[in-house]
Amino acid sequence: MIGYAWLVPVFPLVAYVVLLAAGRKVQEGFAAALGTLAAAASFILSLSIWIALLQGGPQPPYLWPWLTFGPEPSQTWYVGFEVNALNAVMLVVVSFISTLVLLFSRGYMRGDPRFGVFYQYLLLFVFSMLGLVLSPNLLQLYIFWELVGLCSYLLVGFWYFKPEAAAAAKKAFVVTRLGDLGLLAGMILLYLATGTFDYEGIFQAVQTGALRIERPDPAVLTTVAALLIFLGAVGKSAQFPLHVWLPDAMEGPTPVSALIHAATMVAAGVYLVARTFPLFAASPAALEVVAYIGGTTAILGAAIGLTQRDIKRVIAYSTISQLGYMMMALGVAAYSAAVFHLFTHAFFKALLFLAAGSVIHAVETQDLFRMGGLWKRMPITAWTFLFGALALSGIPPFAGFWSKDEILAATLESGHGFLFFLGMAAAFFTAFYIFRVFFLVFAGRYRGERVPRENGWVMTLPLAILAIMALVAGFFNSPVGDYAMARFLGEVPGTREAGTGAGTMVLSTLVGLAGAGLAWLMYGKGTLSPERWSLALSPLYRLSYHKFYLDELYRAVIVRPFAALARGFDWADRVIVDGLVDLAGEGTRAVASGLRRLQTGQVQTYGLIALLGLAALIFVSLSLLGGVRL
Amino acid sequence: MTSVLQGLTFGDLWRVMAPELVLTAAGFLLMLLDAVLPARVKRLGLSSGIAAVSLVAAGALAAARFGESGSLGQGSYVLDEYAVVFKILFAGITLLIVLLSADYHRHVELPKGEYTYLLLFGTVGAMVMASSLDLITLFVGLELLSVSSYILAGLRRSSKSAEGAMKYLVIGAIASACILFGMSYVYGLTGTTNLGEAGFILAQIWDAYRGIILIGLVLMLAGFSVKIAAVPFHMWAPDAYEGAPTPITAFLAAASKAAGFAMLVRVFLYAFSLHFPEWGGLWIAIAALTMVVGNLLAIVQRNAKRMLAYSSVGQAGYLLVPFADLTRAYHGGNVFQSMSAMYFYLAAYALMSIGAFAVLTVVTRHADSEDIDAFAGLYRREPRLAAAMGVFLLGMAGMPVTSGFVGKFLIALGAINTGYYWLAALIFLTSVMAFAYYFGILRRMFFQEPYGGGEPWKMSPAVAVVVFLSLAGTIGLGVAPGLVMHGLSGLHWFGQ
Question: Could you report the predicted ipTM of this complex, rounded to two decimals?
Answer without folding.
Answer: 0.81
